[in-house]
Design brief:
The protein contains 10 helices and 10 strands. By secondary structure, the protein is an alpha/beta fold. The chain binds S-adenosylmethionine.
């Protein structure tokens, strides 16, 4: 059932998605040319790809917490690192996109909700070694494995917080300002809208919010529609797996783009 929803959403996306030719906004045109279509390869890409390969071959197991409705921890189970590496994060293509976005927007203070094994975090951190990345993960054993992965890549600019987003995020947002937030955990309608609403008061003109899995379910589609149509959002981009929102007031007329990636 879930997959049918995703397949239908993907067909709709393919029909609507534009390339740079159909885009008149200079802001979005530049984003397509300099971020989406940037084919450069960076040393970090190979390093992270090797780590991914190692994790995909690792059949040792970890105890993981499952986050149930309302995002309270409901139970724990055992999963292989192999299985987590294959299913919990996006492919390298989207990791490279995170890297290029941090580079392009010169983001310095980055937050990630959902570390998992830290592949996405590594792209964010390697994009700018002077930036600080804070990443939150609820499963302590997964977070420990991610820490070992960061060490193996020699990454020093990541701070890990272990706990439920519901408990960690509100006080963190009061203490620290972020210019780039990657929302990649607890892909449920209500939770996603809550995280957006909690982060919104601290957003400014430069802020970039990236949401993962915006078409995963009807609930995530609803969450994405309510986020992208929020009055504070001046421009939104749908890349099918990622939804990106901007708050730049220089974009006078609210714009929404479905772009091919
Ligand atoms: C999709 S994975 C993150 C993938 C990672 N960002 C990447 O790019 O490789 C989502 C992670 O969020 C964690 N998570 C889900 N709900 C949570 C919650 N309410 N509080 C804390 N962690 C949560 C899960 O344990 C899981 O490891």
């Amino acid at each position: 059932m879930k997959y049918w929803f995703l397949i239908r959403a993907y067909v709709k996306y393919q029909i609507r998605a534009l390339t740079a030719h159909g885009v008149h906004s200079p802001f979005v045109y530049n984003f397509i040319k300099e971020v989406l279509e940037d084919k450069r390869s960076f040393y970090a890409f190979d390093e992270i790809a090797s780590l991914r390969k190692k994790l995909v071959a690792d059949n040792s197991t970890l105890e993981v917490q499952d986050f149930g409705a309302g995002s309270h921890t409901t139970s724990s189970s055992t999963r292989s690192i192999q299985d987590i590496a294959k299913h919990a994060g996006r492919t390298a293509k989207y990791g490279r996109l995170l890297f290029r976005m941090v580079n392009y927007f010169k983001s310095k203070s980055i937050l990630e909700l959902g570390t998992s094994l830290g592949l996405g975090t590594s792209y964010l951190a390697k994009a700018n070694e002077h930036a600080k990345v804070i990443s939150i993960e609820g499963s302590a054993h997964i977070a420990r494995q991610a820490a070992a992965n960061f060490d193996s890549l020699g990454i020093k600019n990541i701070e890990q917080l272990v706990g439920n987003f519901d408990e960690v995020l509100p006080s963190l947002l009061q203490k620290k300002k972020f210019d780039f937030i990657f929302f990649d955990g607890n892909h449920r309608e209500e939770a996603t809208i809550n995280y957006f609403n909690w982060a919104l008061p601290y957003a400014d003109h430069q802020s970039v919010f990236v949401f993962d899995d915006i078409h995963w379910t009807q609930g995530m589609e609803n969450a994405w529609n309510s986020i992208r149509t929020h009055e504070a959002v001046t421009c939104s981009i749908d890349l099918f797996y990622f939804g990106i929102v901007f708050f730049n007031p220089e974009i006078k007329e609210k714009q929404h783009f479905v772009l091919r990636y």
